[in-house]
Request: fold
Amino acid sequence: MIDSTAQIHPSAVIEDGVKIGANVKIGPFTYIATDVEIGDGTEIMSHVVIKGPTVIGKDNRIFPFAVIGEACQDMKYKGEATRLEIGDRNTIRESVQMHRGTVQDKGVTTVGSDNLFCVNAHIAHDCTVGNHVIMGNNATLAGHVVLEDYVILSALSAVHQFCTLGAHCFVGGGSIAVQDVPPYVMAQGNHCKPFSINIEGLKRRGFEKAEIRAIRNAYKEIYRSGKTLAEVKPVLEEMANEYPSIARFSTLLTNSTRGIIR
Reply:
């Protein structure tokens, strides 16, 4: 089903079964396979490949040579009908790749809204990407990675499978994250090491001075107190009673399967 207001270049190939919403623009030489749904107001430029099952939300911009919803690069994948789900208002730049999930995990790769994926960023199978995320040029996620809201993963950085990057963290360029990066933390290096909290990012997002101070104190408890993580957890839980944002630390420490960067 194609809405009558959609603008589709004559050279684009649209297979049967594609759903295209109102005011969608599709550029020349783009290929969209069956079982793809594209939300209202989305612009898909030239030479884009989209395969399904894939759902793309509203008002996204997809630049040339992006490959969206292709089969994943996992050797276990045998053609099962796994999915990719993309939210609204994302900017997906040139040659970005986003792959569908695997039945060995959730069966779906999920991308939220209001994200920026720069040139040649790669999102592998079964990843979960939140909202307001930035992935720099050539930033790469292995399978099963979680990026929480407002993560910045700088250019030429890579994340090991099953890692979580906590909300508002900042990973500097050329870094390799092989363990979880706690929320609010600035990290850099191969392998990634913590340096401080992302104060400037928190200020831009409206965090009050007292809350930033509490986050900094929580960081010191984790990294500078000399306590074990088991000893730190009850301290963080008590701090979270006054500053709920601290609870993000406790949640990640509890759920981590790979441990945190040190």
Summary: Residues 209-223 form the longest helix (15 residues).
